[in-house]
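Fold these two proteins, one after the other.
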Amino acid sequence: MAQTIAADKVTLYDLEQKFQLQQTEDPLFFAEWQGDLPALTEAERHRLARVQAVVANLERRSVLENTVKLAVVAPLLDLSGLFLPPFYVSTEDSVEIEARDESIVVRGRIDILVLMDRLWVLIIESKRAEFSPKVGIPQVLSYMLASPNKNRPLYGLVTNGTDFVFLKLLFQEVPRYGRSRQFILGQDHDLDRVLQILKRLAGIVGQETN
């Protein structure tokens, strides 16, 4: 019988217990986010600089809800070629999330974009940046574990618009996953690295699909 876990309740412990999911710390397991990444053009760097300027302007008013996809994620997917053939995008149901800090309740939403059933992009939206990418990692892994495509590596990206974490999942004797370091918009050219990694993953997924 298939095992079902509510997407808004799933934890890494649940996935470890029910699906024998294991995290690996082997740097060679997820080498795609490291090493010799695709170079960026001046036009791409200029576009990323505009993205950072837009986010800085929005943050001055704490306006992040419903702007993450427009301001950050959409330009990244566009620049990495993920809106063009052979890629196609489908969506999963949104998941509501909530965090409490004393008397304050912060609510947000998680949206999932699936590209060619090989690359999951999980977007956390909230009026304030209370939710780190860690909130979305169990959710995106649960979707990846449910994928029927188990003979090739699967990849994920979790972002709240300012922080980014990449994931890789392999189905071996037991499913194993690795994660990148956390990239932070506005720090050490991290947004450049995010685009370079997306371009690398797009190249891998697109080539293996042809």
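Now the second one:
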Amino acid sequence: MTLSAPDALAVLSDAIAGRVAAAAPLLVALRGNKGRTLSAIAWRPDLIVTSEQTLPSHDTHAAVLPGGEEIAATLAGRDPGTNVAILRPAKPLATPGVTPAAAPRPGALALLVGAGPTAQLGVVQEVGPAWHSMAGGRIDLLLRLDLRAGRGGEGGLVLDAAGNAFGMAAAGPRGQMLVIPTATIEASLGPLAAEGRVARGWLGVGLQPVTIPAGLREAAGQDQGRMIVGIEPGGPAEQAGLLPGDIVLTLDGCALGDLRALRACLGPDSIGRSIEVRLLRGGATETRALVVGAQPKG
């Protein structure tokens, strides 16, 4: 008697269902506005992680645990820069904790598990270098899935084929599904838990993009800059002797062609550091030393 070989599709289906079942104890449902349910991750017994851009602004949220129990969860910190928000549950969670995965390769399978649980199977469409969000956060890797953000799942856990987590799902531009890497989340947890935010560098100025006059471009060495239109009293820029009307050309050697480049120069590690500000004043270039401050709270 010859035994038939296992059906490959059935084996794959069972494996995927098994991965979802194993990840389900890590998923928490947050009650959102108008009955909407948001996915969140029981990152460790005392901490719930979710997508900052979807989390309502109030401080206390109703969290439904995997077994169906509903408890209160209090906002502990949020960072628009990395799209990470953390909440503290009213009691310790019975969670196995997140097992981080190595960075995936393009074409690798990705399983997005949301609260419920819900599941979406996709492919890692793109793996790129570190990038900076428009809100100034550094994301360790560009990870893009072939899933559409409109189908839900934001704030859910993204797993590799072995069932380990390589990040949290986040809606990107034009309906793309991005992944906030586990390394980025881990780096945000300390400052968020301690201070409720991730502090970044602050110059104490209002800047407006300007085109440098043709007669000054040779001296400036560039076509674009940012004019100072306001200065915070007592702030780093005032202390460095900068004035309204100055055109900032570079910060620490970084050209400021767009807002993302400016914010990239002012990450958390820039606070307290002396940087070189190259500027145009009265038709001539000058260089000033400026000690970067911490962005004020609120």
